[in-house]
Amino acid sequence: MEPDVTIPFLDLKTINLRHRDALREAFERVLEGGWYIQGGELAAFESEFAALCGTDCAIGTSNGLDALHMILRGYGIGPGDEVIVPSNTFIATWLAVSQSGATPVPVEPVESTCNLDPERLAAAVTPRTRAIVPVHLYGQTADMDPILALARRHGLKVIEDAAQAHGALYRGRPAGSLGDAAAFSFYPGKNLGALGDAGAITTNDPELTERVRKLINYGSSIKYQHDLAGYNCRLDELQAAFLRVKLRHLEEENRTRRDIASRYLAGLAGTPLVLPVVSEGCLPVWHLFVVRTEARDDLRHYLGEQGIASQIHYPVPPHRQGAYAGSVLAAKSFPISERMHRQVLSLPMGPTMTPDDVERCIRVILDWSGKR
Ligand SMILES: *Cc1c(COP(=O)(O)O)cnc(C)c1O
């Protein structure tokens, strides 16, 4: 085995350099257009992205966290309200709720999928609950039908955190169209990544659309008329133009990710690793390929020695972060989530990974498990 051959976790530079000419063209178009905020590139990207998600509207935002925050504000959710979130997620899901002034109410996941457990939801609903934010973690949609049914019974909004799920399907329907509204992130490392920060909101709700369009633009839809105390959370023309280029390749890149995932699943089937489970009716986009083992740190070290990068998503659950140190949440225990955070390891995954790279990762992992 060639020890100098390294497999990166995600080769962002190669991913973007593949589109060098088109990205340069997009840059020239914006530069020469002389219009940098809220222009034609944004409008075009919004309609192209809405088409992907099968929604009436997409609204570009500064990033995924702001997209979530603006949806919550758009629905008037704030102090005194409760919003149900997964106990295991990237902390931004919780931070958006906290920023709105509402209280995050964590609910534990299903072990096999790592996604919100619909069976545990009813017990978390109180008279103050206003919304549920399921996260489509690692690129597989949460089990939305029972979540939506419970939300309808209690009059709650369902806000998808689709930051990891661009193009994922649930019973044939795209992520972003499954709830009342959805937030996407185009952080460079996401399946659809900009060359900087960016995000979007998708929805079929015309009232929400009107409100968030104002909220992200100083509360204004007419210049110098401010109906709401708003924010500046816009997506700029340059990132919109780059995203239009990248969007054209999303489906093909997601297919490559699916191919890599099937190779991993077949090649690692006999190992003691807990492998990701694809739920019936779900077509994931494999933002991450996450295996689980109590020997996670040992495996990670072994892979590193063989030149294979890996990451942990996420090492510390949100309720154990300093950000929530002063809150009642810090004192609570979420054993399923805590165990996941201790066991998870994300293997290399991305559209520039070759079948040979995957084979090599599999061989090294088989080697590791043979030695134990
Ligand atoms: C990336 C991510 C976010 C935040 O998106 P940003 O664009 O980085 O603000 C929110 N939720 C989840 C699940 C994410 O993975």
The radius of gyration over CA amounts to 21 Å
Q: Main sheet?
A: 7 strands, mixed
> Roughly what fraction of the amino acids lie in strands?
5-15%
> How do the strands of the widest beta sheet line up side by side?
1-9-8-5-4-2-3
Distance between the termini: 20 Å
Family: Belongs to the DegT/DnrJ/EryC1 family.
Keywords: Aminotransferase, Pyridoxal phosphate, Transferase
Organism: Paludibacterium paludis
GO molecular function, one term: pyridoxal phosphate binding
Task: Please characterize this protein's 3D structure.
It is a single chain. The protein is of the alpha/beta class and 372 residues long. Helices cover 38% and strands 14% of the residues. It contains twelve helices and 14 strands. Strand 2 (82-86), helix 5 and strand 3 (103-107) form a beta-alpha-beta unit. Helix 2 (20-33) runs antiparallel to helix 8 and helix 4 packs parallel to helix 5 (92-100). The protein is globular, with a radius of gyration of 21 Å. It starts with 11 loop residues before the first helix and ends with a helix. The protein binds pyridoxal-5'-phosphate (PLP). Pyridoxal-5'-phosphate (PLP) binds at residues 63-65, 89-90, 92-93, 135, 161, 163-164, 185, 187, 197, 199. Pyridoxal-5'-phosphate binds at residues 63-65, 89-90, 92-93, 135, 161, 163-164, 185, 187, 197, 199. Keywords: Aminotransferase, Pyridoxal phosphate, Transferase. The active site is at residue 190. This is Aminotransferase.
